[in-house]
Amino acid sequence: MRLAAPVVIALAWPALAAAAGRQVALPDPHVPLSPGPPLLGSTGQARVPQPGRTREVVRVGVDADGEPIHISVVQRIQLLGVGDYEFSVPAPVRDVYAPAGAHAQPGLLDRAIVWQGFSPGRRDLVAIATLDAQAAAALPLALRVATHTSGERFRLVFELRNLTRTRVPSFAGRGDAAGLAAVLDGVRRTLARGQTVAPPLITADVRPATIVVEAPFAFRGELALAPSVRGVRVAGGRLDGSRVVFSGTATGAQPARVVVTGTGDPQPHVRVVARPVREVPSAPGGGSWRNAVARGRVGGRDLLTASVRAMLGLARANQYETFLATPGAPEQARATYVYATAKIAVAAAAPKPSGGGIPGVVTVAAVLLALAAGAVAWVYL
């Protein structure tokens, strides 16, 4: 079960020994590197006949500056076995419901989504959950939208920053080149089949080291501009009608950046769809790591570094593939993050008090129900 995985910020250093050729285990890709994700909360007894794949869509409503103001998650958990199920998905949940026509309804108890029922052999459990603002701390990406004006001219700067970078205690050293190459090639094949990656034992001389780890995110997005803008120029994307479209892979090295200039009031609305990248890096020159060793392109030191980083990278990506916990293995889970400008409704100003006085204050309220309702369609990505 992955529903109550312990948080281990350090992938415990293995029993490091000074002796040469000691067997050690590579980092476990199922151990979280930070307190979240998956989001934490209360859990209880769990019975799941046979979990299948899990799909999540994390929808983040942002304000005009790109700051999160609403977070909802559509989670679809597939059960493939016959039998009773009873489990909870911990999270700071404010409200949860199932879409129309669902065969099962989730419950809400003690800040967790609760599932209980019977699976006839195939059951899809779909929950649409609204989360507290504290869930924003676990989001993988940060958006920034800034518009500067000078007369009729504007300069719009959009930035997308990867927040997943972290430092963890691990190890470095030198290992058996042929053995490590076989491990890396094997992990890549296991991932391609969607199977669980177990932390393999290796033979190496190791020492403690701190490793910087992150989960890259592949993204595509658009900035919708007001149709009235003129003379638009774009750096970091391309103009498609009244939209600026862009794509790439966000890493922690530097933010992805799009700069738009033109005349008029741009009134930008942003939308970004992003997914974590879960992969084993290619060998130098491409192809298999085994061929790279045979050609003398890599040695035992580089291969140990690549192996440790690959397993830690999988651990970090697995965390963001499971923003909400899942009863299945992380390799069966896929998460999509959708950031979009939230619509704002402005209430009519209160009438001026008789006899003169301070005019009524205009109330601004975010229309958030549309975000949750629209999320249902995204669960089938």
Question: How would you describe what is shown here?
Answer:
A hairpin with a 2-residue loop joins β15 (238-240) and β16. By secondary structure, the chain is mainly β. The protein is flat, with a radius of gyration of 24 Å. 14% of the residues lie in helices and 42% in strands. The strands form five sheets. A nine-stranded mixed β-sheet has the order 5-8-3-2-19-18-13-16-15. The chain has a four-stranded antiparallel β-sheet with strand order 9-10-17-14, with no helix packed on it. It has helices at residues 177-192, 289-294, 300-321, 369-378, and strands at residues 22-25, 51-62, 68-79, 82-90, 93-97, 107-108, 112-120, 123-131, 141-150, 153-162, 166-175, 201-213, 217-224, 230-235, 238-240, 243-250, 256-263, 269-276, 333-341, 344-346, 364-366. It contains four helices and 21 strands.
Mean pLDDT: 86
Q: Provide the β-strand percentage band.
A: 35-45%
State the major sheet: 9 strands, mixed
- The radius of gyration computed from the alpha-carbon positions, rounded to a whole number of angstroms, is 24 Å
Percent helix:
10-25%
Count the strands? Answer: 21
How many alpha or pi helices?
4
Would you summarize the structure shown here?
This protein is mainly beta.
Quickly list its features.
381 residues, mainly beta, nine-stranded mixed sheet
SSE blueprint and pairings:
Layout (H helix, E strand, L loop, with lengths): L21 E4 L25 E12 L5 E12 L2 E9 L2 E5 L9 E2 L3 E9 L2 E9 L9 E10 L2 E10 L3 E10 L1 H16 L8 E13 L3 E8 L5 E6 L2 E3 L2 E8 L5 E8 L5 E8 L12 H6 L5 H22 L11 E9 L2 E3 L17 E3 L2 H10 L3
